[in-house]
Amino acid sequence: MQAVWFPEKPAGNVSRLRSLIYNRHPTGGSFVRPNKANFGVDFLTALKKRYALEDGSDDDGKSCSLIVGSKQVQTVGFENITKKQSQLRALQDISLWKCAVNCAGEQGRIAEACPNIRVVNLSKNLLSSWDEVILIAEQLNNLESLDLSENKLQFPSDSPTPTGTFSNLKILVLNKMGITWAEVLRCAPSWPILEELYLKSNNISISERPVNVLQKMRLLDLSSNPAIDESQLCLIAYLPRLEHLLISDIGLSSIHFPDAGIGCKTSMFPSLQYLVVNDNQISEWSFINELDKLQSLQALSCTRNPLCEEDKAEEIIIAKIGQLKTLNRCQILPEERRGAELDYQKTFGNEWKRAGGHPDPDKNRPNAEFLSAHPRYQLLCCKYGAPEDEELKPQQPFMLKNQLLSLKIKCSNQHEQKVLEKQLPDSMTVQKVKGLLSRLLKVPVSELLLSYESPKMPGREIELENDLQSLQFYSVENGDCLLVRW
């Protein structure tokens, strides 16, 4: 059945017919008046129209002489034709989105007219078979990126593509096409160096593991395919170079890496660095615990999940995934990680003690249930020391006296200056602390540099580099020492 193009705002029942014409049922079809439909144009015609390079009479009327054989021939518009041909040959990145392209056209004309094209957007056109895509692609020897989204293509049942047709293709976009996973794998041998594959909104089910195909793929987008579940993700878990995985809006609620125990790393998704799981049904912290098992994970985006509605959700995610550097597109600064991990320790410290946790390493034996729920807690105790009883006391109602920190203030490069002692609110910003010290020490604010030391971390100095953050943000506590330099 030939694909046809209906008007953007069709009258009467044409809107309903448009949906029927795209039905992939083998006996599906519709009747429509010819004057209501656009049956499409070939690739080169659409390209010339899109970039205002149509063939036709020339308006400038310029003429020149040309010798043909022994006769002199007068030509009109020859210079303009040459200019148009030059413009076509110069094109490298083209978009024929919604241009009613239905075929390649006469064999060889694309290669002759525009051989330097590298990027092609053919989304939302009238292409109806993969064979027609091949006829276009085999004339574009430099093709690196191809978007075929929203074309309803029929794929051959056997190996469909001549060797070399897509030899330079690195990016392929096949969104909203109704393509199946079996069809993807059937075509994949002809994409030997493919790095990015977009399969959004295809109702795909991953039915088998890719074997000897897609081995160089770095990015895979499977978003908005609700048929995909946790078990299907295991089938793509051993793609060796997969760095970016986008699985938003698939209804995902759990994930599990059975080859790795508590505190261990999984062999699955060995190169995965960036994971996007937005708009899913993630509501259990066990999901985040599992992500800490990934060897290479550095960036996570998990917005609009039930879990994210919980109090301090982002801080807990940071504390639970030790190697994470970016969360929801925001960089995790070292100070932010430290604060999140210390708060996590305090929040679950009493639970840790009830489960058998103890500051004495010889007596520290939290039960399996606690370790399963908080697999990084023991590591944090080694990193920062076990939480003290004073830290784990229930927080008192807000009163200014309860929020004051008793701090020593030491001018580290002015040895004659006495050590000062001050009580400062933990909500006080670094900028205001500098203002106070500027008045006390008679030094301009712009020249002051602040850091602090904690008895809990001897030998380590933490810079207070952001003037707009509070002392609480940097986890400054009672008994700490502010270091001032200028």
TrEMBL record:
InterPro entries hit by this protein: CAP-Gly_dom_sf, LRR_dom_sf, Ubiquitin-like_dom, Ubiquitin-like_domsf, Ubl_TBCE
GO cellular component terms, A-Z: cytoskeleton
Coiled coil regions in record: none
Pfam families linked: LRR_9, Ubiquitin_2
Localization per record: Cytoplasm, Cytoskeleton
GO terms of biological process kind: cytoskeleton organization
Keywords recorded for this protein, A-Z: Cytoplasm, Cytoskeleton, Leucine-rich repeat, Repeat
The Ubiquitin-like domain, residue ranges: 405-484
Listed CDD domains: Ubl_TBCE
Superkingdom field: Eukaryota
General function of this protein: Tubulin-folding protein; involved in the second step of the tubulin folding pathway and in the regulation of tubulin heterodimer dissociation. Required for correct organization of microtubule cytoskeleton and mitotic splindle, and maintenance of the neuronal microtubule network.
Subunit structure: Supercomplex made of cofactors A to E. Cofactors A and D function by capturing and stabilizing tubulin in a quasi-native conformation. Cofactor E binds to the cofactor D-tubulin complex; interaction with cofactor C then causes the release of tubulin polypeptides that are committed to the native state. Cofactors B and E can form a heterodimer which binds to alpha-tubulin and enhances their ability to dissociate tubulin heterodimers. Interacts with TBCD.
Protein name (database record): Tubulin-specific chaperone E isoform X3
